Amino acid sequence: FKSIAITADSINNLSDAFSCVITLVGFKLSSRPADEKHPYGHARYEYISGLAVSFIILLIGVELVKSSFEKIIDPEPTLFSFLSVIVLLVSIGIKLWQSNFNKFVGRKIKSTALEATSADSLNDVIATSAVLISTIVAKLFGWQIDGYMGLGVALFIIYSAIKLIGETLNPLIGVAPDDDFVCEIEERILSYKGILGIHDLVIHNYGPGRCFASVHAEVSANEDILVSHDIIDNIERDFMTKMDIHLVIHLDPIVTDNEYINNLRKLTKEIIDGIDSLLSMHDFRIVVGTTHTNLIFETGDF
């Protein structure tokens, strides 16, 4: 129908199909088990495949910008047809279904790649709707805005590619864990009887389903070491089975039944809170001497 906007939209959809193929390859590679050279598995292949798709989409967008500018400079009347309208409407309907389907599956298998694909499909609905509007406007008013709509779709493709590059690069470089995720881990550990406090929580992500974490957990120094160790083992096992997190806990015994130590701990905590309420205190202990007493502890921005 001599429409650069429809052509741009079709290439956008074709790039989506191509990206899905690469995503499937990424899923296959990322599912490979850990080996001697890759002890943390291959889950980051999913991010690498997404990055490759992002650059391909970016190149497609740049080429479409060039074609759209040519159409703007030398406009050619778009041929209106009810068939083109029907094709665009069907495309919108399919994209809406794809968005909902990918969102459902993505949440079910906890795949950020599929959830991103769901959002991309929803964005495609907006792009295709714009193309449909340009086709109808050309018929009703004779305005040849096809080149401008094609340019809009091309810029939209470039924007999506740049956004996707950022989303796939961040986990490869390494990003801070989500605050809600950190709070959930903290609350879960502290919910176990015998755990008095935690600190130095560190979270590493090696790809979807490959989350590793380490933390120091405070327990009573009066408790049997075997009992405390059993609690730690149970927590690590529960995190693996319920949250798919490889958690390693370092046990820190603290004195809890000495009134003198407890008062000094409380006083020290009040002083630290007065300096900065975000600071935490842990590993508190005292060394009593003949002339003075040393208070030994660590602080951190927990």
Report on this model:
- The protein has 302 residues and is α+β, with helices and mostly antiparallel strands.
- Helices cover 63% and strands 16% of the residues.
- The chain is built from 8 helices and 5 strands; from the N terminus they run H-H-H-H-H-H-E-E-H-E-H-E-E.
- It has helices at residues 4-30, 45-73, 82-109, 112-141, 146-173, 179-190, 225-242, 259-275; strands spanning 197-205, 211-220, 245-254, 279-288, 293-301.
- The chain has a 3-stranded mixed sheet, covered by helices on one side.
- Helix 7 links the parallel strand 2 (211-220) and strand 3 (245-254).
- The longest helix is centred in the middle third of the chain and has 30 residues, at 112-141.
- The radius of gyration is 29 Å and the shape is elongated.
Oligomer: single chain
Distance from N terminus to C terminus (CA atoms, Å) equals 61 Å
SSE series: HHHHHHEEHEHEE
Mean pLDDT: 82
State the low-pLDDT regions, or none: none
Biggest β-sheet description = 3 strands, mixed
Number of strands: 5
> What is the tally of helical segments?
8
Structural class: alpha+beta
Strand % is 15-25%
The value of Rg in angstroms is 29 Å
- The share of residues in helices is 55-70%
Spatial arrangement of strands, main beta sheet: 1-2-3
Q: What shape does the CA trace take?
A: elongated
